[in-house]
Specification:
4 copies of one chain form a homotetramer. Chain A is of the alpha+beta class. The first copy, chain A, has 2 domains: 20-175; 183-437, Alpha-Beta Complex (paralog of FGE (formylglycine-generating enzyme)), CATH 3.90.1580.10. Chain A has helices spanning 9-12, 20-35, 54-73, 84-88, 112-131, 138-167, 178-184, 242-250, 262-271, 309-318, 326-337, 342-346, and strands spanning 200-203, 206-210, 226-230, 233-236, 279-281, 287-291, 294-297, 373-379, 405-408, 425-427, 436-437. A 4-stranded mixed beta sheet of chain A has the order 10-9-8-11. Chain A has a 3-stranded antiparallel beta sheet with strand order 5-6-7, with no helix packed on it. The first copy, chain A, is globular, with a radius of gyration of 22 Å.
């Protein structure tokens, strides 16, 4: 499907960063690598409001470096193009007006080639800045780390947005060929017989500190560290699988209101949902799922993904269980990290469209945190004592702290150096285009 | 404005219930009393989706008794009309299809007179049932208590819906005349000089039990009792007042994005909000508010009400404070109930359209819990261990536990016997037609 | 006003006007008579944008007299209420701002009783003005005639809006009881065996003058008289009947795109139309129609009504015929008026909810012009040389001359003195709540 | 495909067809030439429902040949791709389901390169078919002519859609560089002093035959020829110019309801229109228009274009004139073709984005029929006796014959061999993205 024989080398190369400059280069390279299997046409479209054009992601992440680093810390820096701030500002009111989000997919210009020129221009100036980093105030280094994590967030969005763009096309093209997929990662999908038996792992109650407590980077929404009281609970050792979820479907789960929250039931009926996003049945009734190489039979042993919070919660209701809170999830993760008992939980290295993540060492992929983001029944609200930063970066996280749910873990599309035990991902309850699944609690 | 000289006697008469039968009669009488100042035409309209026609409230509450008590516990009971279950079921999927909520205001029939006949028919049969209550299983008594609280909830909705219906009319008719208002309650609105100085009241941290712990009725969403860890915090001794809020407006609060959550900022701009609901400025710039007798000058000493969560949160941001969580609120309420220090907090007996509540003894009105529902920054989620009941009543609360915020306290429109320290009221963040205000925390 | 024993006297009394003053009184009385069988609640609601509350019609027609006659020609006249111009102006930009049309059904005030007081106030002052009419300039008499025809237009809208309001109620109440219906008009519905055989009546081609050519009132849109060239054509002697239309339905007419205009086909699918408005099938498959006494079996001999232009056109396509143009219709009407051959055409005195029209002499009802408005395939555009009048009345007709179709004839709901051979009624192609049917041409 | 050095050769080469095969080749080449200055990204987007992606036009026109010619007349023909019928069927219900029109801009695949491969594949097979054309039934030749005119219609849409796509981009890129524009056509824009003085040309009344009467191709909607009676009228010798229209704007034309049809006035206010599409004012108040090379000063001598019917009609009302009917327009065009007096009318060879038309001999461009489509006040209805063809082609024109207005003439974007005196173009009254202007009548 490739237009000009893209090398997959960049997809495969994600060396461990040895320094910030090296890490900068690796992250920037990886963004481009994700887009390389696409055609220019694929980088333009926005089939639904949530999905931004890949070209936009490549430019927006570049604008971030320009706006927060180069303009502030590289004397004499001149912006690449005076209109790009209008075109590629995502949502920062502090930074002025911008293209309406719904119109991102109507903009053919600048073309992909110009966006690459923009990236090169900014990378060259960033190289100059990185060489002088030691001389700059610590805030510059902090912004650099933020920029890297920001770009990694958009790498995950690139993966999910590309998947959506290609999947909604009636031609259902694959992102990779079978050969490319085989090359990209030796780890095969989990076989049914490798699946651990579902089991409940007990976690003792108590007062626990939650939030980012180690060295290193975290987003402001992971702070401050604070104590929570958690009652004893149990968590399953593995994610709910496609096979598990199929039983829910076959039991009429999508047709029985009593398992559903009211807004979820309305949604299921309005949208005529009968299965997770990307699932379909062929004429023989066989279940297929759209994945990296196009349509393929559903792997019953893989964790269910691309479900909304409503579907996760309805499944849990049907199963006589519940979703964990984010505090429970974090407490359990800490608990099992330190105990042999955790082994079971850690065994859940299943994944679905793993090649999207393109990790250099797939054997280490996802060991800790699973292959899907896990919906929790916790609202994305500020931690006690949270304060929005002053200026534009105060808009980064704080203004979204309502009407969304926290997801924990990470997915096959999350860059590995971006995964953290305290990471608070968040989406509205109806969203399905992310790699979202669930783990039962009780 | 009255069509046939309604006596206000029922409005004034709300005797303390001495028994369930007496209480049943008092509650049923009070619903009718609330509608009595209206004309038949006023009872039909639905000016916005949230606001149900008063006629619908009178019928729906009656349908509740018929459906849950009479059909189950009165042998041989025949429903008043076979179509009323379709017309007056609110949201119970368990009980079949029903009129679309958005269409309630398109239905002129049954007319108000028939709804009153329906009420009389059901009350007569309920009298029979109440006389035999001791012979019935305990579940019948539980349903009776639930039905009373259900009807009281709709009394508050009647008050707020009537206010909305009359206020949106270009004629801005009052609900009561000045004379009726004067008769209905001797307590005057707070004078500016009676206003306590705002002060911060400290509450010690610790592990607290929250949830309904006393004897008597509570909704299922107030259970189970469970422990929470609360860090030390401070709460203000009084609600934010109209005068306080006016300073926020005059400081440009509605025009500065940095105080607002993202969805709130979009809403403010989309709806061109510049003040709380029911506020307006006359040609001289004087601030007016729509209240029980129509338009009147804004009382700066009264608590601000009819604000959305977004406005409450933006105010708190502007004031350098925050909204309390629902746990903090409940902990503080218990704390101050038991301490002399609480006196300040308890002094906030301000109110706006108090006559709607029609309490028998206004001197006792609102002493504990304020005059407005107080927005908390807590999502309306199930308490740990919460289980939805089986059957239709499982739909009463549980299916709404997402995307709404908890409000605590009670308002001038809340029947006094309906106010509870553990009561969890809940609305979406954009709603303003309830008596909703805020109290600052830090 | 009472629902239990409505007097039908006013419904029946519509004496032939002997003078303008008498005619004024008769017309004004008839508007009230149409509303008399309703309850106050029925007069408030607006179940769809096109349908105005009956209370609004009663007030708007009164505002018309006040605005165009009393304010201009009765010295010292004081308006009944200063806000009524805002409330009851329909669409005259010349006369200032007004209630949004979509909000008419949200307004409970002024109540029906106040609207009657308004009518009485205006009628009393109109009596004074009518007594002096001879002294006033001729323009006053012209406005008086316009006002009478304006009110008659709203009488037809009252009939169709009331029908819609009652029909959409799940209780499907009748407008009249069977007894009232029997009293109101001796003429029974047509029996199947009374139905004339459909036949084609030829009309010779030629140059014809069209437009209002007689003495007496016409709207400005019926002028100027102008010549048109019409090719020879044939018209059917009777309207398409319910029985005819049922054959179209049973032949799959609503499921075959090839009979439909593109926008009609989209509409049929979007709205899931399978039959005319007010038709339904009971559990036994019997066809019913909602009419003056509620649901009743469909009369196959009656003309089909309550169909959109799209349905009329699709029927004609299916039948291998077409709709006439408005010029053809007018030419044919003049032609058959003057020829014995026309007798067949004139035999179509069928009607459906005839009591709504409340004609004094039902034997003369509709002889000339049929019982349904007949869709023509002519756009409602200005006649050659048409000029909008100056001032507010220039908005009466001219600004609507686009995107609507002309209907000719008249319906059982059209006051008889309002029917004219040159009358140009007009509606958008998708409207069905008027008494609209068709007659085939070829 | 390259953006840097587009060859304009194909744009300039449009040799007069000497045979159908040659004409086929010329038309097909011209479609590609129109897209050549674009980047692949430009060919994907759909910024508004009416505007289809250029890539879609290139594929849909190809699908038309495949579907109507190759599948029917080339034995053994195999379709290029089995899914393309779903992707590129525009609106033919006869030919099955298809992509929702609103989703055309969400489809990145097939990429432009594949669409070109599709075109080549079909052209090669068409060459075979064209070589055998003499042996095929006459219907094949008729379909060939229809296909050529179909593709020419899409060439005009390509021009207008490309203009819209580029204009809505905040970068406002030009379609051509100044140099390319200069090369493409020697004829310069009209100078102000070359503008003929507006004058009224009288046309005598009488019975005229209208409709396609010559040899050669016409669409079915131009038939049957039929007689109309036209009263004497006058038409202006030239189109209304930008300068004329600016006087309307400066006189407050967009702010005074009395010039507007009701639906037009609502639209103007809802969309905040203050000028034709593509007009803007810079900071100095100078009027600019978006054209082939991007933004440029408004040429007051050029005909106003990109106005809706509502704006055309409002201008005419303001000017004390009216729009012609389509019959008047056609009668006048025939009249002036044959009279020296017509010279004035024919002098209006003004044009705006003329390079889009890319005519071989620009000196002959537009002499007869003006540079903008001219709105008439005639509904697009069937001519008397019109019959839709059987089969899919019956959907070509007939199903659109409602709620649209006829435009006559042709525009700078209309291929010259596609312009006909009897041509009935049609659009909804609110559309502005075509080259639409007006000529006054009285």
């Amino acid at each position: 499907m490739s237009s000009s024989s893209p090398s997959l080398a960049p997809v495969l190369a994600a060396p461990a960063p040895t320094s910030l400059a090296t890490h900068y280069q690796a992250v920037r390279t990886q963004s481009v690598a994700l887009v390389q299997p696409l055609l220019p046409e694929d980088t333009v479209v926005q089939p639904t409001l949530d999905v931004s054009p890949p070209k936009w992601h490549l430019a927006h992440t570049t604008w971030f470096w320009e706006t927060f680093l180069l303009k502030n810390y590289l004397p004499g820096y001149e912006v690449f193009h005076p209109e790009y701030a209008f075109l590629f500002n995502s949502y920062y009111n502090s930074l002025g007006s911008r293209v309406n989000r719904a119109d991102r997919g109507t903009l053919s210009r600048p073309p992909l080639a110009d966006v690459y020129r923009y990236r090169t221009y900014v990378d060259e100036h960033m190289a100059t800045l990185l060489a002088r980093l030691a001389e700059l105030p610590p805030a510059a280094t902090e912004l650099l780390e933020l920029g890297l994590h920001h770009e990694q967030q958009h790498q995950e969005l690139l993966a999910t947005d590309i998947k959506y763009i290609l999947s909604t096309n009636p031609l259902a093209p694959g992102y990779l060929t079978d050969e490319q997929l085989a090359m990209s990662n030796e780890k095969s999908e989990p076989a049914a017989n490798s699946l651990p038996t579902a089991a409940w792992l007990p976690v003792p109650g108590g007062i626990y500190a939650v939030g980012h407590q180690q060295e290193g980077f975290s987003f402001d929404n992971e702070l401050p560290v604070h104590e929570v009281l958690v009652a004893p609970f149990e968590l399953q050792n593995r994610l709910v699988t496609n096979g598990d979820f199929l039983r829910f479907i076959e039991a009429g789960g999508y047709r029985q209101f009593q398992f559903w929250l009211g807004e979820g039931w309305d949604l299921v009926n309005r949208e005529s949902w009968t299965a997770p996003l990307y699932w379909s049945q062929n004429a023989d009734g066989q279940w297929l799922r759209y994945g990296p190489t196009g349509l393929a039979p559903l792997n019953l042993a893989a964790p269910v993904s691309h479900i909304s919070f409503y579907e996760a919660d309805a499944y849990a209701q049907w199963a006589g269980a519940r979703l964990p809170t984010e505090a429970e999830w974090e407490v359990a993760a800490r608990h099992f990290e330190a105990t042999p008992q955790g082994g079971n939980w850690l065994e859940t290295g299943h994944f679905d469209p793993q090649p999207l993540a393109a990790n250099a060492d797939p054997t280490q992929c996802h060991q800790l945190l699973g292959d899907c983001w896990e919906w929790t029944y916790s609202a994305y609200h500020p931690y006690p004592g949270y304060q929005r930063a002053a200026g534009a970066l105060g808009e980064y996280n704080g203004k979204f702290m309502l009407n969304q749910l926290v997801l924990r873990g990470g997915s096959c599309a999350t860059p590995e150096s971006h995964i953290r035990l305290t990471y608070r991902n968040f989406f509205h309850a109806d969203k399905r285009w992310q790699f979202t699944g669930l783990r039962l609690a009780r």
